[in-house]
Write a structure and sequence with these properties.
The protein has 105 residues and is an all-alpha fold. The chain contains 5 helices and no strands. The longest helix is centred in the first third of the chain and has 34 residues. It comes from Penstemon smallii.
């Protein structure tokens, strides 16, 4: 009976560990995805009147492949939210509504 309980506990610990690993990998993937949007930073920082073609192309790719990473981008403290939220329109890219993102608070 004790051996069976230990097996169940070991299994539960393994499941939790796998879940934490998957979450860490997803965050890492989003960090790489967000870093790939670096051509957009001049526009978002209000340094450019229009986003570059590279920015818009990468934004399209992110929307198609990892749209949830856009939420992480919007949750960055040092981001001009107004410019970031205007980026899809400036690039003529349809994105999911920002209201679908959960606040980090």
């Amino acid at each position: 009976m004790l051996a069976m309980k230990m097996e169940i506990i070991s299994l539960l610990i393994g499941i939790v560990a796998i879940g934490l690993w998957i979450q860490a990998m997803a965050q890492s993937d989003c960090q790489n995805t967000i870093a790939g949007l670096s051509p957009c930073y001049n526009y978002i920082a209000d340094s450019g009147s229009t986003p570059s073609p590279q920015c818009c192309n990468h934004l399209k790719t992110v929307v198609q492949t990892r749209p949830t990473c856009l939420c992480e981008l919007l949750n960055q403290d040092d981001l001009n939210q107004t410019r970031a939220l205007g980026l899809p329109q400036a690039c003529n890219v349809q994105t999911p509504s920002a209201s679908r993102c959960h606040s980090k608070n």
